[in-house]
Amino acid sequence: MATSTFDALIIGGGPAGATAALLLARAGWSVALLEKTRFPRQKVCGEFLSATNLPLLRHLGLAESFQELAGPAVRQVALFSRNHAVISDMPRYRALDASRGGGNESHGHGPEKQNDEVDETENAFGRALGRDHLDTLLRDRAATAGAVVYQPWSASGLAKDGDAYLCAAVCRDTRQSAEFRARLVIAAHGSWEPGPLPTQRARPASRPSDLLGFKAHFLDARLPPGLMPLLAFPGGYGGMVHSDHGRVSLSCCIRRDRLEAARRAAGSATAAQAVLAHIKRFCGPAREALATAKLEHDWLSAGPIRPGIRRCGFDNIFLVGNAAGEAHPVVAEGIGMAMQSAWLLCQFLAAEPAAALSERRISAVRDSYTAAWRRTLAPRIRAAALIAHWAMSPAAVAGSLPLLRLFPGVLTAGARFSGKAASADIPLLPLPSAP
Q1: Do residues 408 and 87 lie in contact, with contact meaning Cβ atoms separated by under 8 Å?
Q2: Residues sharing a CB contact under 8 Å with residue 336, sequence separation 6 or more, in sequence order
Q3: Of the N and C termini of the chain, which has fewer Cβ atoms inside 10 Å?
Q4: What is the mean pLDDT of residues 404-431?
């Protein structure tokens, strides 16, 4: 079996993994990126990216492509519950601080607008873009930067080999086997699926409280463009947003026990049909928004989703994205947080050439990355947990509705609190370009 050697091996080609591959390759590292599925692919995901991520998208050379493909700017946030719809303004992202690398670092990797001021319509609000488009954009940019992409290749084992790691992998199309050796491994494979790697969890026993994720695209929905509502219903929560190509994305989480009850109530319906019926029953504004909608493709499902703070690394292995920590999707910040975690790590790793990294330096990087991750991302995970448990409690939501109807700006404040108006404390310092 042939062995290929790299400075870094990245397992998982989603937003976190592709961002890490792009940044390290741009800094002159030799990088292998393993992704087990073919692109374009759909994912259970809310698809929304806050405007606070635009500096990073610009730094990656993807801001213009993102804005051209994504859906309309999301200017309003709402709560849909029972027969109530409370609507408020989405907080604006007001400034891109050029001193923190506000996007003017293209590094010769394609034209980007050199504009330090935030244009209200283009940059002040977030947008949604399907993962079939976003993941492909990021992967292609990483490949252009010099990362070697192996797809569809699945990692089947990972073992220590001296001062490096050996990863066994299999091509899912041809069943060809290969081996990759790398000084550093970055696990970006998410958290939902069990697997054989030391960074993956064992298959957990089912619990009534497990959260199961569902997602679908609809055409011809009545949801007003620019509105992103939180759907609150017994035992779960969801969100809707206009994504690319006229599609409305509906994504949601529901407890396993509540799903089983919904399936019984719906008779012989599939799980996805039961979830949709449950949402329509307990969320009148969502029912109205979907009254004329047509399902574009089959529903997707995933889970169980178990949000929480995990670990950022051990030995010469680093974790990014959901593998390091996962927020409840209720705040629609998962994609941005995944990319930001990769950015945090790569700023520490790429501060010097890969060949100059000593074991002591790697240990220091791990400590610094862990501290920065917990300082910038852990508070948002805790805040998301509070919002999620509130949204899943009919009594809590009902008790809050009188206040929200009187003061809808509370929703604006909540959106700001979840990270939609102020960047996390992640300085966008320029990484060195590849020679």
Answers
A1: yes
A2: 49, 50, 52, 53, 419
A3: C
A4: 78
CA distance 416 to 218: 28
Q: 425: which 2 tokens?
A: 């404390």
For 135, the token pair is: 């993941």
For 3-203+306-420, which CATH class?
Answer: alpha beta
Residues 77 and 404: beta-carbon distance below 8 Å:
no
pTM: 0.91
For residue 193, how many C-alpha atoms fall within 13 Å in the half-sphere facing its CB?
14
pLDDT tens digits along 264-295:
998 877 999 999 999 999 999 999 999 999 99
Other CB atoms within a 10 A radius of the CB of residue 384 amount to 23
| Domain edges within the chain | 3-203+306-420
Let me know if 303 is exposed, middle or buried by CB neighbors in 10 A (0-12, 13-18, 19+).
Answer: middle
**Cα 300 to Cα 43: distance, rounded to the nearest angstrom:** 7
Contact call for residues 77 and 229 (beta carbons, < 8 A): yes
Strands 211-219 and 248-255: antiparallel
| Residue 39 to residue 333: CA distance in whole angstroms | 22
User: Residue 232 carries which DSSP code?
Assistant: E
- What distance in Å separates the CA atoms of residue 254 and residue 46, rounded to the nearest whole number? 14
